Amino acid sequence: xxxxxxxxxxxxxxxxxxxxxxxxxxxxxxxxxxxxxxxxxxxxxxxxxxxxxxxxxxxxxxxxxxxxxxxxxxxxxxxxxxxxxxxxxxxxxxxxxxxxxxxxxxxxxxxxxxxxxxxxxxxxxxxxxxxxxxxxxxxxxxxxxxxxxxxxxxxxxxxxxxxxxxxxxxxxxxxxxxxxxxxxxxxxxxxxxxxxxxxxxxxxxxxxxxxxxxxxxxxxxxxxxxxxxxxxxxxxxxxxxxxxxxxxxxxxxxxxxxxxxxxxxxxxxxxxxxxxxxxxxxxxxxxxxxxxxxxxxxxxxxxxxxxxxxxxxxxxxxxxxxxxxxxxxxxxxxxxxxxxxxxxxxxxxxxxxxxxxxxxxxxxxxxxxxxxxxxxxxxxxxxxxxxxxxxxxxxxxxxxxxxxxxxxxxxxxxxxxxxxxxxxxxxxxxxxxxxxxxxxxxxxxxxxxxxxxxxxxxxxxxxxxxxxxxxxxxxxxxxxxxxxxxxxxxxxxxxxxxxxxxxxxxxxxxxxxxxxxxxxxxxxxxxxxxxxxxxxxxxxxxxxxxxxxxxxxxxxxxxxxxxxxxxxxxxxxxxxxxxxxxxxxxxxxxxxxxxxxxxxxxxxxxxxxxxxxxxxxxxxxxxxxxxxxxxxxxxxxxxxxxxxxxxxxxxxxxx
Length: 655
Known about the structure:
This protein is 61% helix and 2% strand. By secondary structure, the protein is an all-alpha fold.
């Protein structure tokens, strides 16, 4: 991905590199201090590391700051990708180097002056006046501090990353005890850095995906804490002011922090606000609850919750003063945990020319997915489609079977508006209150959401097949694609489930099947994606347009006896029938508009399906409430019927 930049770097450095030699890092850095103002120097790690000729050339303190910044960005990204493959070959999990790529890019925007240009005329004028009268650091000084901080961090972390990869990610696995001897264990930041790399080393050996993710996240957090502690004195200089009153200094710090969002990603740009609590929207389901004991203790110590099941944000994680180490540490710990699997983390930081050879094939898969999901109102069709996916994956994608049942359970309720119109007495009364139209809108929205979810689930399955066939990474899919196109949005919407879908396909190919834990992992990932990423944004938008009575019904669904008296006449259900599981009770979502509550209900249902080994003998499909359209031959041979149904569908639609 970084070929274009690397080509430039190689051509630029070749004559010099022929004569340069690898050198001792500590001696090389100490030699660089002559080009650094004494106020901007920090302690150097003494880890017996070497620094190569190319790094020496581009990380030198007298090098062009912008070229150096581009080199750092590219190198961080390359190290991050290599470390990611080493720590987690099957699944894409980020690490410190990925985050550092975007932090370095943000530093580059200060160095180039781009960040100041974006502040607007008023804030720029205030910074200019403050700098002119000596109350705040002027633009020139800020650029110098950022350039030095960026370079000093890189001179340590790049050689250290190379050494770790060389020691632990080659053919021969290194000895961590020997690696540890290189550090000064009496220094706090060296100890934290060792702790970070120790967790990386453990992650390489860890087979359990959930534990591996916790180790990598915990290691990355300690990595950033160590790095932030080392450059703390430099960061404090940016926030030092000549204002006399405490209030004025506080206002300046708040304004400076607020004016510095962190950008992440070129395909999907995220502006991470430092002065806002980190949202939990993008936190991987495996990191919603921390089980690692040391990780738990660390979170408790800095004031972050270990269990985020019901939390929309990492409460009190925002930083009002970025110059305060404790606030910075808390924000970054939440930020790393929240975004360590986000796709934007893995996009190359420079714009490059990309191949678009995959686009025609992806477009074809996109069309197939639309046929597979059917028209908006074809709920029974989608129930069959999901069953087809279940059998297609040799019953490995158990999530599809569960959603097939829940799709059918939802079907009749979405037609409540039409059902009301057919009731001569009650229907007329409700119609006069003008609620029938709103119920129709809501029902249509739910059918549309269901259509979108099923289409994207099938799309992820077919795209994962293509990636396996071509032996390419998921990020290659975005190459040459218009970011404003519907195809791009469709691909982007399935980013978080593609890795697990590829793992399911691997299990199908090898015939290994899934353990119970892996089945639960599958549920957590897919249900989180379905209810939070896909359904919730559309549901919130539709909910805002509904009348108060319907809003109340959705937020506080009635219990079974009320449902039987008032809702059953309109073919509406607020509960899910469990008779097919030989249970004399119903599942009820406490608050249908709360994605966590919907996931809780789905989790209970998934557990019941697991008890029956995902084989309820089709008795659930005989519930006359929802599956009123399936013929008798479906019950006699479900797989045969489903295969025949989709064979006819695919032929008639040019599938």
